[in-house]
C-alpha cells in the first residue's frame, strides 16, 4: 500500500455563503494541489468536500494520513456511519426532520473512505505545518475569486 498524506483547509466567509476548500496530496516527493468551492456553503460542507476530493483523486487503495485542524471532522470519520444510520431510524419512526447535516457528504465519505486505510492527525493552531499553510492560501485565493465573480454577477443583474 502506498502512503499518502492529505492536508485540507476550508474557508467560508459567512455562516452560510461563498466558501472554498483546498487539499494537498503528498506521496514521497510527488505532490498535487486541488481546490474547489461553492457560492452557497458552510465551512463543514467545504471541509467534507476537500476530504472527498482528496480521496477520489487516489487511483488505488492507500494508507492515508489525513491532516486537518477540524477535530470534529477527524473524530467523525470512523463514527459517522452509525450516527447517520441512527438519524435515519429516528427520522423514519418518529417522523423527525433531518437531524444530520450534510448526510449525503458523510455517506459519500463513508463509501470512498472504506477503500483506504485512514489515520487522522489533528493540526493545532500553534503548530506550523507547511502544507496546511499552503492549503489556507489556496482556499483564500479561491474564495476571493468566488467573491469577485459573485459581486460581478450582482452588478450585471
CATH class term: Alpha Beta
Radius of gyration: 17 Å
* Series of secondary-structure elements, N-terminal to C-terminal: EEEHEHHEH
The assembly state of the depicted protein chains is single chain
- The structure class reads alpha/beta
Overall geometry comes to globular
Query: What's the overall average pLDDT, rounded?
Result: 80
Poorly predicted segments: none
- DSSP helical segment count: 4
- Strand line-up across the major sheet: 3-2-1-4-5
Number of domains: 1
DSSP strand count: 5
Distance between the termini: 52 Å
Main sheet overview? 5 strands, mixed
In CATH terms, the superfamily is Ribonuclease H-like superfamily/Ribonuclease H
Approximately how much beta-strand content do the residues carry?
Answer: 25-35%
Helical proportion, percent range: 40-55%
**The CATH topology is what?**
Nucleotidyltransferase, domain 5
* Secondary-structure arrangement, i.e. CATH architecture: 2-Layer Sandwich
Protein model, in words:
By secondary structure, this protein is of the alpha/beta class. The longest helix has 27 residues, at 130-156. The model has no long low-confidence stretch (mean pLDDT 80). The protein has helices at residues 43-56, 71-94, 103-113, 130-156; strands spanning 2-12, 17-27, 30-41, 62-68, 117-122. It has a single domain (2-152), classed as Nucleotidyltransferase, domain 5, CATH 3.30.420.10. The relative contact order is 0.21. Strands 3-2-1-4-5 form a five-stranded mixed sheet, sandwiched between helices. It is globular and about 40 Å long.
